[in-house]
């Protein structure tokens, strides 16, 4: 079993120090009970703005608000004691200016207890990343496929297929690293491109749909558990089919309620004098 020992929370310098070492194990978490289950097994939990699609049923991450991220971020921090927890800055909360990003990130840090924030963007976000990191807020970058830019990209499509795309992702990752980010997520990027970026950067790369050439991996937890329906992107490996387990359990419950087999006497508060069934 792949559990980790130690009671102290993994720090951001420890995550950064894993460059080129044992791959970082990262997952998303949105709630305290799921975070509690994941905490002993992972190095880092991301409260991703993917919660807009996974938890709230939106078609994109664009409607996610800072208030949502703070509520879920605080829940995940409460449910964990050892994984580093970072929280996504949602669309519209940081792109306008470094000062606006500072206010959003500082609110997230103060109100959730998270160890850092993540934001999407490459060279254009470099001044913002520098503004935050120089003032004490650890930042994880996010390049390649950037879900908050889904409208301008024309959909959720992998990048790095042409020389121009490959150069753009590499330049973005280099700008993010030079700005002081402690790590960078590379999403939906061709394998050789992600591998080359990983060997050229001084900070860990965390891949999602970006190959085993990265310094770590992240997946949306509900995807790997089979809780997000039948469609899954190519980069998802289903490690369990909890969707089927939920369907079977709820079907059994509905059958027993309709047949008055649940609740049984063992689930009822009975007067002391009443005979107890099957004891
Ligand atoms: O929002 C999210 O969950 C993410 C990960 C998929 C990297 O950004």
Protein model, in words:
This protein has 279 residues and is of the alpha/beta class. The protein has one domain: Alpha-Beta Barrel (TIM Barrel). It has eleven helices and eight strands. The protein has an eight-stranded parallel β-barrel, surrounded by five helices. α4 packs parallel to α5 and α8 runs parallel beside α9. The longest helix is centred in the C-terminal third of the chain and has 17 residues. The radius of gyration is 21 Å and the shape is globular. The two termini are 38 Å apart. The structure holds 3-methyl-2-oxobutanoic acid. The site of 3-methyl-2-oxobutanoic acid has 12 residues, from β6.
Overall CATH architecture: Alpha-Beta Barrel
The CATH topology corresponds to TIM Barrel
> How do the strands line up in the largest sheet?
1-2-3-4-5-6-7-8
Helix-strand string: HEHEHHEHEHEHHEHEEHH
Give the rounded overall mean pLDDT.
Answer: 95
Q: What is the radius of gyration? A: 21 Å
Helix content: 25-40%
Which stretches of 5+ consecutive residues score pLDDT under 50? none
The largest sheet, given as strand count, sense and whether it forms a barrel, is: 8 strands, parallel, barrel
CATH superfamily: Phosphoenolpyruvate-binding domains
Gap from first CA to last CA = 38 Å
State the secondary-structure class. Answer: alpha/beta
The number of helices is 11
Share of β-strand residues: 5-15%
> What's the total count of β strands?
8
CATH structural class: Alpha Beta
List all distinct small molecules, including ions and cofactors, that are bound in this structure.
3-methyl-2-oxobutanoic acid
